[in-house]
Design goal:
150 residues; mainly alpha; Four Helix Bundle (Hemerythrin (Met), subunit A); two-stranded antiparallel ribbon; 5 helices
Amino acid sequence: MKAIAEELQLCIDQYAGALKTMPPEAFDYRSSPAKWSRKEIIGHMIDSAQSNIRRFVMAQYEDSPHIVYDQDKWVVIMNYQHGDPKDLVDLWYLLNKQVCEILKNTPVAAAQWFCLTQEPHTLEWLAIDYIKHLRHHLNVVLDLEPVAYP
């Protein structure tokens, strides 16, 4: 899990600078009413970080905890569209630093323990998938080459 934590740290460091230099008005745009703005995508990544923190922690003391969330409802209720872009980026970064700390300190055996999302996954699988999920959304926010994510 330490190697995954290091990869996550590299990922968030790589993208944080670009996010912080984007003009604030670029965060508000929606390509259609049914799509999230950049603020809302970052908000979704904040929600994902919070949910994954719960998964990575609870699976170390509960047997296969079931942790899911309705991403669309969270984005609306959290009101990210009206948030300050700098604060959202800072919160996203800090939550991900915490994910890194948790992963670095996860016992080797715990990597194979399970957490239920829509289906059971090991903590190792969830951590690897989490980075793929981040890269997918970050490339959308920054208008980079798309990264496929299931």
